[in-house]
Amino acid sequence: MAKRSEAQKIGSFGQRLVALAIEENGKWIARDQTEDFGIDLEAELTEPCVSGFIIKIQIKCHKSVKIEDNILKVKIAPKYLEYALNCRIPIIYVIIDKTLKKIWYVWVQKIVYEEIRKNGKLPQKGITVIVNEKQTLQGGLNDEIIGIATMKNKIQIELSLMDIVQKVTAFGNQKIISNVFDIIGKISDEIDINYSVEYIITQLIDVTGEFEPEKFGDNYQKKRNSVELMLHELCRKIGYKISKKQIIKMTVIGNYYSTIGFVSLGILYDDYFAHIKKMDLPEYYKKTGISVFGIIHL
Q1: What values do phi and psi take at 218, rounded to 5?
Q2: Helix 108-119 and helix 154-171: axis angle, to 10°?
Q3: Separation between Cα atoms, residue 203 and residue 219, nearest integer Å
Q4: Is the separation of the CB atoms in 184 and 221 below 8 Å?
Q5: What pTM, to 2 d.p., does this model score?
Q6: How many CB atoms lie within 10 A of CB 59?
Q7: Under a CB-based contact definition with an 8 Å cutoff, are residues 298 and 258 in contact?
Q8: Cα–Cα distance for residue pair 93/106, rounded to 1 Å
Q9: What does the pLDDT average to over 192-210?
Q10: Burial of residue 28, with CB atoms counted within 10 A of its CB: 0-12 exposed, 13-18 middle, 19 or more buried
Q11: What is the C-alpha to C-alpha distance for residues 101 and 14, in angstroms, rounded to an integer?
């Protein structure tokens, strides 16, 4: 008869412990998720009644967890980060010390948001997250995780806005795209929109960096138009939020200049001249050494 490995035993213990903690909390109900990719449990907020507000839980149980200066370090693998990037149901990554029966958590979408906001993309080798020892699952279920599940925080607002941007861009309707960016522009002083800016510029780089029209087939022109519309509206509506680093990223791609990027820069000069002038961009472009013939006509 086959025997369970030690790792399997520890994993099963961790899942039972988290499920028990959720049930004992009284505000949530736990459901097993054995068929889901990388997800061990689902929890639904039930106070004051069954609500439809759900979180997904990924559990990592260890015999013991090293804690120094009241913090523990957690490595989140790239596959979970990518999953969280595309999933709008909140994903909670849970860490367990089996010996002490202690449980901590991090909200994965927040980690993804902060990384893209800072660097424009996710690292290929995953992210090491610093977690305060006081950030226990039991405490979170009574406070922060409720706000995460019910989307009552600014990060959730921006993630939702990005969903809208993705969908209207795929639809390719200029009027709808323009109206969406009108809304983003009006609330840009209330929320940090750097995530949105970095995401849109990354889309441009992804397309321009693989300049192979035949790769897109009949969708090439549609893809080009969508990227162009999105970037132009971004510059018109919230150009004052775009940094020098971001302008360089959208105009200089590898050893080439992007025509879409430079047309967008022209919009910025027209609409936000004072903001752009102080960046001294002409001097930067002189130093790139890129020929004026090195242009990607995208």
Answers
A1: -70, -15
A2: 70
A3: 15
A4: no
A5: 0.76
A6: 24
A7: yes
A8: 5
A9: 68
A10: buried
A11: 9
